[in-house]
Amino acid sequence: MSLTPDQALAALRWRYATKQFDASRKIPADAWKALEESLVLTPSSFGLQPWKFLIVENSAIRARLLPESWNQAQVTDASHFVVLTARTDLGTADIDSWITRLAEVQEKSPDDLGPLRGMIAGFAERMSDGERHEWNIRQVYIALGQLMATAAVLGIDACPMEGISASAYDRILGLENSGYATVVACALGYRSEADKYATAPKARFSSDQVIARL
Length: 214
Ligand SMILES: Cc1cc2nc3c(=O)[nH]c(=O)nc-3n(C[C@H](O)[C@H](O)[C@H](O)COP(=O)(O)O)c2cc1C
Description:
Blueprint: H1 5-14, H2 29-40, E1 51-55, H3 59-65, H4 74-77, E2 80-87, H5 92-105, H6 114-125, H7 129-153, E3 157-161, H8 166-172, E4 180-189, H9 207-210
Antiparallel strand pairs: 1-2, 2-4, 3-4
Helix pairs in contact: 2-7, 5-6
The structure holds flavin mononucleotide.
């Protein structure tokens, strides 16, 4: 099953960074399940999935996150609020847990995947601690993109949010010293009729400016 080109573009043109959500509308359970699965299905380098996605359901926690988010009301008004976190490192245990899972899914022994394990470990070892964290953060942005695109296709509104204090989020969400750190958040739900941004023209450079052919 696939969308037509027009359908795909219509969904992407319909989406916008929602500023005002209709706090009374909730995403139905089946659609939410699909959005969570879009996070799970996100591709990552070597398949390592160096992330954890926190679905903040507790309204008291969301209220505490609000002032750490430039008071952007999406944090408390949206139907759902996701904090995307990245592993702060990439060590032997991370690689082993991925190799174990891959072997299980592919019905192989982890030893069969020894060469892959060695290649990933060699790659990780050549990076500094900071570079490993940065690399993991880049993977998390792929998840954000996939989540937003899936939401658009489902007719669900979203606001990606970097206007947050990642260190305060880490404190409030109990992430300090957990091996995971906040990268970015995403509010999801349904736009309020009062959100004037919904009808603002989409401002993008022309395709000639951002796409080059060689
Ligand atoms: C990584 C990222 C972080 C963003 N952070 C915020 C934010 O904190 N608050 C907000 O209202 N919009 C935020 N935006 C929305 C952008 O401003 C918006 O996507 C951009 O202006 C293009 O407009 P459009 O998404 O409505 O087409 C963010 C977008 C991205 C991709």
